[in-house]
Amino acid sequence: MIRVLLADDENLIRTALASLLAIQDDLQVVAQAASGDEALAMARRHRPDVAVLDLQMPGLDGIAVAEKLVTELPACGSLILTSYGRPGHLKRALAAGVRGFLPKTVSAQVLADVVRTVHRGGRYVDPELAADAISAGDSPLTPREADVLELAAGGAPVDEIAKRAALTPGTVRNYLSSAAAKLGAVNRHEAVQLARSRGWI
Question: Cystine design at 58: which of 23, 33, 35, 121 (Cβ 3.0–4.6 Å)?
Fold first, then answer.
């Protein structure tokens, strides 16, 4: 029996997934979580074979949870199930040790098969997402530029971004200007949109 942890902040989706997986003879949902932090706590308590993680959750996101599981529970394989399959997300997930990456549009049977594949130590990436990631290329942004752009995403003023990033306002302006130039954006707002659309922030 393959023991599964399900983590998704949308209750309806999570309970529907649990019901669909429960139909499979060899799969058992041993724990559910509504946030990244709860998913980590449940994984530590129940020691599942496979963790099915939503990409975007309150607290830690699915990729951050998967990264911690690689270290803390190496026998537990992780797969990401997402509505936001951006190329940058896929690359980040694979770098973090995620073994499966699927859109939420897949059928219950495909999900069950991928859980089995991950449990056997294999990998599965949705072919369309993989093709998008290859065509998008790597992010031109440095980690610091990406961080500052992420902080700018909510429309915060430079002084506030500087305080949160522990940088001077001048340094923040330089990072924002550099990021916009690399992305071919006319301003930081367009830079944020472009970086988001490609999953680079």
Answer: 35
Buried b / exposed e across 174-185, counting CB within 10 Å, b at 16+? ebbebbbebbeb
Query: pLDDT tens, 66-99?
Result: 999 999 999 999 999 988 767 778 888 988 999 9
Averaged confidence pLDDT in the chain = 91
- Give the whole-angstrom CA distance, residue 130 versus residue 17: 24
Q: Cα dist. 190→9, 16, 78, 165, 184 in Å? A: 29, 37, 33, 21, 9
Are 99 and 78 in contact by the 8 Å Cβ rule? The answer is yes
Fold designation for 2-134: Rossmann fold (3.40.50)
Q: Which CATH number fits domain 143-197: 1.20.120.450, 3.30.428.10, 1.10.238.10, 1.10.10.10?
A: 1.10.10.10
Domain limits, the chain: 2-134, 143-197
Task: Count CB neighbours of 15 within 10 A.
Answer: 14
